[in-house]
Amino acid sequence: MNEATDEMPARQALHALLSRYSIGPKHLVAPGPSEAELALMVEAALRAPDHGELMPFRFKRVAGNARARMAELFAAAARAAGKDEAGAALDAERALRPPVTVAVVARIDMGHRQVPAHEQWACVGGALSNFLMAAHLLGYGGKMLSGAKVRDPGITAAFCAPGETLLGWIALGTPTRQASGPSRKGGVAAALQDWTGT
Ligand SMILES: Cc1cc2nc3c(=O)[nH]c(=O)nc-3n(C[C@H](O)[C@H](O)[C@H](O)COP(=O)(O)O)c2cc1C
What cofactor(s) does the depicted protein rely on (predicted)? Predict the structure, then answer.
C-alpha cells in the first residue's frame, strides 16, 4: 500500500475522492498493486449499485507470461487493422508498459425480464469507477483504455465468453507525477439542475 488510508476520516476520504484523475501508462511505474490490493479494488467495484445483483462485469488480471501473450495479440490486431511492423511493435509495447493491467469484461443479459441493459451498463460503469477510486485511495494511478482493438476478433475471443463485451483494460501503477487533471466539464452547475416539474 503506497499511502495507508485504513482509518481515513470521512472528510479526508471525500477530499481524496475529489482529487482522482486518470493517469496514463506513460506516467506509471512499478510497483503496481499487489494481489491483496487488487482484491480490495474488486471489493470496491462490487459495491457499485447492481439492480438484481447480476454482477454484469468481470475483471481479468493480466500477469506473468500472460502479458507477453497479450502483447502478441495486440500486435496481431494492429497488423489486422493494416498497421506496419513499427505500429504493431508500438501496440505490443502498450501491453507490456503498465506494471499491472486488468481487463474489464461486461456480461450484459440482454433478455433480463426486470433489469434492462442500460441499468446493467450503469452498474459496469459504477464498478469501474469504484475500482479506479480504490486504486487512487491506495496511492496508485490508473487509467481505463480501450481503442479499436477491443473489437478485434482475436482479442475478444481471448478475453470474452460468447455474449460478453470487452470494455478495455485498466492500466495501474505507481504514479510518477501528480495528475493535474482535465477540466471538470463545467462543474456542479453544469451537472446539477433543479427539476421544477414543468
Ligand atoms: C470504457 C472507457 C474506455 C476508454 N478508453 C480510452 C482510450 O482508449 N484512450 C484514452 O485516452 N482514454 C480512454 N478513456 C478515457 C480515460 O480513461 C479517462 O477517463 C479520460 O482520460 C478522462 O480522465 P479522468 O478520468 O481523469 O476524467 C476511456 C474511458 C472509458 C470509461
Answer: FMN
CA 114 to chain centroid: 27
Helix (H, G, I), strand (E, B) or coil at 54: coil
pLDDT by residue for the chain (198 residues), tens only, comes to: 555 455 678 888 888 888 899 999 999 999 999 999 999 999 999 999 999 999 999 999 999 899 999 999 999 999 999 999 999 999 999 999 999 999 999 999 999 999 999 999 999 999 999 999 999 999 999 999 999 999 999 999 999 999 999 999 999 999 998 876 666 778 888 889 999 998
Cell reading at 162: 460468447
CA-to-CA dists, residue 71 to 33, 136, 144, 149, 165, angstroms = 21, 26, 17, 12, 20
Kindly give the number of the ligand 1 atom that is closest to the alpha carbon of 146: 8
Measured between alpha carbons, how far is 91 from 73 in angstroms, rounded to an integer?
A: 9
Which residues are near ligand 1 (CB < 6 Å)? 21-22, 143-147, 167-168, 181-182
The domains of the chain, with CATH numbers, are 25-61+101-175 (3.40.109.10)
Residue 10 CA to ligand 1 centre (angstroms)? 27
Query: How would you classify the pairing of strands 165-175 and 100-106?
Result: antiparallel
